[in-house]
Protein backbone atom coordinates (compact mmCIF):
# COMPACT_ATOMS: atom_id res chain seq x y z
CA UNK A 1 0.00 0.00 0.00
CA UNK A 2 1.16 3.55 -0.69
CA UNK A 3 1.77 5.89 2.22
CA UNK A 4 -0.97 8.38 3.09
CA UNK A 5 0.01 11.74 4.58
CA UNK A 6 -2.87 13.83 5.94
CA UNK A 7 -1.88 17.49 6.42
CA UNK A 8 -3.94 19.72 8.70
CA UNK A 9 -3.49 22.88 10.74
CA UNK A 10 -5.26 25.91 12.08
CA UNK A 11 -6.47 28.32 9.41
CA UNK A 12 -3.72 30.73 8.42
CA UNK A 13 -0.82 28.42 9.25
CA UNK A 14 -0.18 27.56 5.59
CA UNK A 15 -1.29 23.91 5.63
CA UNK A 16 -2.04 23.85 1.88
CA UNK A 17 1.39 25.29 1.09
CA UNK A 18 3.07 22.75 3.38
CA UNK A 19 1.07 19.90 1.80
CA UNK A 20 2.22 21.03 -1.66
CA UNK A 21 5.86 21.32 -0.54
CA UNK A 22 5.65 17.88 1.07
CA UNK A 23 4.34 16.40 -2.19
CA UNK A 24 7.37 17.82 -4.00
CA UNK A 25 9.76 16.64 -1.29
CA UNK A 26 8.40 13.08 -1.28
CA UNK A 27 8.41 12.91 -5.08
CA UNK A 28 12.20 13.30 -5.19
CA UNK A 29 14.38 10.42 -6.38
CA UNK A 30 11.90 9.25 -8.99
CA UNK A 31 8.92 8.75 -6.70
CA UNK A 32 5.35 9.53 -7.73
CA UNK A 33 3.02 11.42 -5.41
CA UNK A 34 -0.64 12.40 -5.55
CA UNK A 35 -1.69 15.67 -3.90
CA UNK A 36 -5.39 15.63 -3.00
CA UNK A 37 -7.60 18.60 -2.20
CA UNK A 38 -10.94 18.04 -0.43
CA UNK A 39 -12.21 21.53 0.44
CA UNK A 40 -12.99 22.85 -3.04
CA UNK A 41 -10.83 25.97 -2.73
CA UNK A 42 -8.49 25.22 -5.66
CA UNK A 43 -5.57 26.29 -3.47
CA UNK A 44 -3.27 23.69 -5.05
CA UNK A 45 -3.88 25.01 -8.56
CA UNK A 46 -3.04 28.53 -7.39
CA UNK A 47 0.20 27.44 -5.74
CA UNK A 48 1.38 25.56 -8.83
CA UNK A 49 0.22 28.38 -11.09
CA UNK A 50 -2.00 26.14 -13.17
CA UNK A 51 -5.65 26.12 -14.19
CA UNK A 52 -8.34 24.85 -11.83
CA UNK A 53 -8.01 21.15 -11.10
CA UNK A 54 -10.73 18.92 -12.55
CA UNK A 55 -12.17 15.82 -10.94
CA UNK A 56 -9.34 13.72 -12.35
CA UNK A 57 -5.69 13.14 -11.56
CA UNK A 58 -3.39 15.48 -13.46
CA UNK A 59 0.40 15.85 -13.46
CA UNK A 60 1.27 19.33 -12.22
CA UNK A 61 4.99 19.25 -11.41
CA UNK A 62 8.28 17.41 -11.65
CA UNK A 63 10.14 17.16 -8.35
CA UNK A 64 13.78 18.18 -7.86
CA UNK A 65 16.29 15.34 -7.69
CA UNK A 66 15.56 12.33 -9.85
CA UNK A 67 12.57 13.59 -11.81
CA UNK A 68 9.76 12.31 -9.59
CA UNK A 69 6.26 13.39 -10.57
CA UNK A 70 3.55 15.21 -8.63
CA UNK A 71 -0.06 14.60 -9.62
CA UNK A 72 -3.02 16.47 -8.15
CA UNK A 73 -6.73 15.85 -7.73
CA UNK A 74 -9.54 18.08 -6.47
CA UNK A 75 -12.16 15.75 -5.00
CA UNK A 76 -15.74 16.87 -5.46
CA UNK A 77 -18.25 15.21 -3.12
CA UNK A 78 -21.02 15.31 -5.71
CA UNK A 79 -18.94 13.61 -8.40
CA UNK A 80 -17.62 11.13 -5.84
CA UNK A 81 -21.19 10.22 -4.88
CA UNK A 82 -22.12 9.68 -8.53
CA UNK A 83 -19.11 7.36 -8.87
CA UNK A 84 -20.17 5.58 -5.70
CA UNK A 85 -23.76 5.10 -6.88
CA UNK A 86 -22.54 3.79 -10.22
CA UNK A 87 -20.02 1.43 -8.56
CA UNK A 88 -22.42 -0.15 -6.08
CA UNK A 89 -25.87 0.37 -7.61
CA UNK A 90 -25.19 0.71 -11.39
CA UNK A 91 -27.51 3.72 -11.59
CA UNK A 92 -25.99 5.16 -14.77
CA UNK A 93 -28.27 7.86 -16.20
CA UNK A 94 -30.46 7.66 -13.09
CA UNK A 95 -27.53 9.03 -11.10
CA UNK A 96 -27.27 12.00 -13.44
CA UNK A 97 -31.00 12.57 -13.00
CA UNK A 98 -30.51 12.62 -9.23
CA UNK A 99 -27.88 15.33 -9.70
CA UNK A 100 -30.28 17.49 -11.71
CA UNK A 101 -32.95 17.08 -9.06
CA UNK A 102 -30.57 18.23 -6.34
CA UNK A 103 -30.88 14.92 -4.52
CA UNK A 104 -27.11 14.64 -4.11
CA UNK A 105 -26.82 17.97 -2.30
CA UNK A 106 -29.75 16.91 -0.14
CA UNK A 107 -28.13 13.57 0.72
CA UNK A 108 -24.75 15.04 1.71
CA UNK A 109 -26.44 17.82 3.69
CA UNK A 110 -28.61 15.59 5.87
CA UNK A 111 -25.76 13.10 6.28
CA UNK A 112 -22.46 15.06 6.52
CA UNK A 113 -20.73 11.86 7.58
CA UNK A 114 -21.51 10.47 4.13
CA UNK A 115 -19.75 13.44 2.54
CA UNK A 116 -16.60 12.74 4.54
CA UNK A 117 -16.71 9.04 3.60
CA UNK A 118 -16.85 10.05 -0.06
CA UNK A 119 -13.96 12.51 0.22
CA UNK A 120 -11.66 10.29 2.27
CA UNK A 121 -12.74 7.21 0.32
CA UNK A 122 -11.48 8.64 -2.95
CA UNK A 123 -8.06 9.36 -1.43
CA UNK A 124 -7.91 5.91 0.17
CA UNK A 125 -8.76 4.30 -3.17
CA UNK A 126 -5.72 6.05 -4.67
CA UNK A 127 -3.59 4.68 -1.81
CA UNK A 128 -4.64 1.08 -2.60
CA UNK A 129 -4.64 1.32 -6.40
CA UNK A 130 -2.24 -0.84 -8.41
CA UNK A 131 -1.24 -0.86 -12.06
CA UNK A 132 -1.43 -3.87 -14.37
CA UNK A 133 1.97 -5.08 -13.19
CA UNK A 134 0.73 -5.21 -9.61
CA UNK A 135 2.71 -2.17 -8.44
CA UNK A 136 1.14 0.65 -6.50
CA UNK A 137 0.40 3.60 -8.78
CA UNK A 138 1.58 6.16 -6.22
CA UNK A 139 4.38 5.97 -3.67
CA UNK A 140 2.75 8.66 -1.53
CA UNK A 141 -0.69 10.27 -1.36
CA UNK A 142 -0.82 13.66 0.40
CA UNK A 143 -4.22 14.99 1.48
CA UNK A 144 -4.69 18.71 2.09
CA UNK A 145 -7.28 18.09 4.79
CA UNK A 146 -9.75 20.33 6.67
CA UNK A 147 -8.46 22.50 9.55
CA UNK A 148 -7.45 21.11 12.93
CA UNK A 149 -10.79 21.96 14.55
CA UNK A 150 -12.64 19.28 12.57
CA UNK A 151 -9.91 16.92 11.43
CA UNK A 152 -10.70 14.12 13.92
CA UNK A 153 -14.38 14.10 12.99
CA UNK A 154 -13.48 14.23 9.28
CA UNK A 155 -11.19 11.21 9.55
CA UNK A 156 -13.21 9.17 12.03
CA UNK A 157 -15.75 8.24 9.36
CA UNK A 158 -16.75 4.95 11.00
CA UNK A 159 -18.33 6.82 13.91
CA UNK A 160 -19.84 9.41 11.58
CA UNK A 161 -21.79 6.86 9.54
CA UNK A 162 -22.61 4.48 12.40
CA UNK A 163 -26.07 5.95 12.80
CA UNK A 164 -26.58 6.22 9.06
CA UNK A 165 -25.80 2.70 7.90
CA UNK A 166 -24.97 -0.32 10.05
CA UNK A 167 -24.93 -2.70 7.09
CA UNK A 168 -24.64 -2.49 3.33
CA UNK A 169 -22.23 -0.76 0.92
CA UNK A 170 -21.92 2.53 2.83
CA UNK A 171 -21.03 0.67 6.02
CA UNK A 172 -18.47 -1.49 4.22
CA UNK A 173 -17.00 1.55 2.47
CA UNK A 174 -16.54 3.32 5.81
CA UNK A 175 -14.82 0.27 7.27
CA UNK A 176 -12.48 0.04 4.27
CA UNK A 177 -11.60 3.73 4.66
CA UNK A 178 -10.88 3.29 8.36
CA UNK A 179 -8.58 0.35 7.67
CA UNK A 180 -6.44 2.67 5.55
CA UNK A 181 -6.65 5.64 7.91
CA UNK A 182 -5.60 3.56 10.93
CA UNK A 183 -2.91 1.60 9.16
CA UNK A 184 0.83 2.03 9.88
CA UNK A 185 1.17 3.56 6.38
CA UNK A 186 -0.93 6.60 7.36
CA UNK A 187 0.16 9.65 9.33
CA UNK A 188 -1.62 12.90 10.23
CA UNK A 189 0.76 15.86 10.22
CA UNK A 190 0.05 19.14 12.01
CA UNK A 191 1.10 22.53 10.63
CA UNK A 192 1.49 25.32 13.16
CA UNK A 193 3.05 28.71 13.81
CA UNK A 194 5.05 29.73 16.87
CA UNK A 195 2.08 31.69 18.19
CA UNK A 196 -0.08 30.98 21.20
CA UNK A 197 -3.36 29.99 19.51
CA UNK A 198 -1.93 27.77 16.73
CA UNK A 199 0.32 25.99 19.23
CA UNK A 200 -2.57 25.36 21.61
CA UNK A 201 -4.81 24.15 18.78
CA UNK A 202 -2.04 21.80 17.66
CA UNK A 203 -1.69 20.35 21.16
CA UNK A 204 -5.47 19.92 21.46
CA UNK A 205 -5.77 18.43 17.96
CA UNK A 206 -3.10 15.85 18.61
CA UNK A 207 -4.79 14.86 21.87
CA UNK A 208 -8.06 14.34 19.98
CA UNK A 209 -6.38 12.27 17.27
CA UNK A 210 -4.69 10.09 19.86
CA UNK A 211 -7.96 9.61 21.73
CA UNK A 212 -9.58 8.47 18.47
CA UNK A 213 -6.60 6.13 17.86
CA UNK A 214 -5.73 7.87 14.60
CA UNK A 215 -2.03 7.82 13.65
CA UNK A 216 -0.17 11.07 14.35
CA UNK A 217 2.88 11.91 12.24
CA UNK A 218 4.98 15.03 12.64
CA UNK A 219 4.62 18.73 13.46
CA UNK A 220 5.64 21.33 10.88
CA UNK A 221 6.46 24.75 12.31
CA UNK A 222 5.84 27.09 9.41
CA UNK A 223 6.89 30.71 8.74
CA UNK A 224 9.76 30.71 11.24
CA UNK A 225 11.36 34.15 11.51
CA UNK A 226 15.07 34.65 12.27
CA UNK A 227 16.26 35.78 15.67
CA UNK A 228 17.98 39.11 14.96
CA UNK A 229 18.77 40.42 18.44
CA UNK A 230 19.30 38.79 21.79
CA UNK A 231 17.76 40.22 24.96
CA UNK A 232 21.21 41.30 26.19
CA UNK A 233 21.76 43.50 23.14
CA UNK A 234 18.42 45.22 23.68
CA UNK A 235 19.18 45.96 27.32
CA UNK A 236 22.57 47.42 26.40
CA UNK A 237 20.85 49.78 23.98
CA UNK A 238 18.13 50.74 26.42
CA UNK A 239 20.09 51.17 29.64
CA UNK A 240 23.08 53.42 30.09
CA UNK A 241 24.53 53.41 26.58
CA UNK A 242 22.04 55.49 24.59
CA UNK A 243 24.74 58.02 23.66
CA UNK A 244 26.81 55.25 22.10
CA UNK A 245 23.78 54.02 20.15
CA UNK A 246 23.05 57.58 18.98
CA UNK A 247 26.65 58.02 17.75
CA UNK A 248 26.46 54.72 15.87
CA UNK A 249 23.20 55.80 14.23
CA UNK A 250 24.63 59.21 13.33
CA UNK A 251 27.59 57.56 11.62
CA UNK A 252 25.25 55.23 9.74
CA UNK A 253 23.08 58.16 8.63
CA UNK A 254 26.14 60.02 7.41
CA UNK A 255 27.20 57.05 5.30
CA UNK A 256 23.77 56.90 3.68
CA UNK A 257 23.82 60.60 2.81
CA UNK A 258 21.54 61.79 5.61
CA UNK A 259 24.36 63.47 7.50
CA UNK A 260 24.84 67.14 8.21
CA UNK A 261 24.34 69.46 11.11
CA UNK A 262 21.18 67.82 12.34
CA UNK A 263 22.30 64.21 12.14
CA UNK A 264 23.01 63.93 15.87
CA UNK A 265 19.52 65.13 16.77
CA UNK A 266 17.96 62.84 14.18
CA UNK A 267 19.88 59.88 15.53
CA UNK A 268 18.76 60.75 19.07
CA UNK A 269 15.14 60.77 17.90
CA UNK A 270 15.54 57.31 16.39
CA UNK A 271 16.97 55.63 19.48
CA UNK A 272 13.75 55.17 21.49
CA UNK A 273 11.60 53.84 18.58
CA UNK A 274 14.36 51.41 17.59
CA UNK A 275 14.79 50.19 21.15
CA UNK A 276 10.99 49.72 21.43
CA UNK A 277 10.98 47.62 18.26
CA UNK A 278 13.92 45.62 19.55
CA UNK A 279 12.10 44.89 22.78
CA UNK A 280 9.02 43.73 20.85
CA UNK A 281 11.30 41.46 18.85
CA UNK A 282 12.82 39.86 21.94
CA UNK A 283 9.38 39.42 23.53
CA UNK A 284 8.24 37.59 20.39
CA UNK A 285 11.35 35.41 20.49
CA UNK A 286 10.61 34.53 24.11
CA UNK A 287 7.05 33.49 23.19
CA UNK A 288 8.39 31.42 20.31
CA UNK A 289 10.83 29.64 22.61
CA UNK A 290 7.92 28.83 24.92
CA UNK A 291 5.92 27.48 21.96
CA UNK A 292 8.83 25.30 20.86
CA UNK A 293 9.10 23.88 24.37
CA UNK A 294 5.39 23.03 24.41
CA UNK A 295 5.56 21.38 21.00
CA UNK A 296 8.68 19.43 21.97
CA UNK A 297 6.69 18.00 24.88
CA UNK A 298 4.44 16.20 22.38
CA UNK A 299 7.28 13.79 21.60
CA UNK A 300 6.77 13.99 17.82
CA UNK A 301 9.18 14.63 14.94
CA UNK A 302 9.33 18.37 14.32
CA UNK A 303 10.28 20.21 11.14
CA UNK A 304 10.77 23.93 10.54
CA UNK A 305 10.19 26.06 7.46
CA UNK A 306 11.42 29.63 7.31
CA UNK A 307 9.20 32.60 6.55
CA UNK A 308 9.43 33.56 2.87
CA UNK A 309 9.30 37.34 2.96
CA UNK A 310 7.91 37.82 -0.54
CA UNK A 311 5.18 35.21 -0.17
CA UNK A 312 5.10 31.71 -1.62
CA UNK A 313 5.35 31.33 -5.38
CA UNK A 314 6.36 28.24 -7.35
CA UNK A 315 10.06 28.87 -6.67
CA UNK A 316 9.24 29.21 -2.97
CA UNK A 317 7.46 25.84 -3.02
CA UNK A 318 10.58 24.14 -4.39
CA UNK A 319 12.65 25.92 -1.76
CA UNK A 320 10.36 24.60 0.99
CA UNK A 321 10.53 21.10 -0.51
CA UNK A 322 14.33 21.19 -0.38
CA UNK A 323 14.20 22.32 3.24
CA UNK A 324 11.98 19.34 4.13
CA UNK A 325 14.32 16.97 2.33
CA UNK A 326 17.31 18.35 4.26
CA UNK A 327 15.45 17.64 7.49
CA UNK A 328 15.11 14.01 6.38
CA UNK A 329 11.36 13.86 6.11
CA UNK A 330 10.52 10.21 5.42
TrEMBL record:
InterPro entries: ArsA/GET3_ATPase-like, ATPase_ArsA/GET3, P-loop_NTPase. Gene3D superfamilies: P-loop containing nucleotide triphosphate hydrolases (3.40.50.300). Residues 5-180 form the ArsA/GET3 Anion-transporting ATPase-like domain. This is ArsA-related P-loop ATPase. It comes from Streptomyces stramineus.
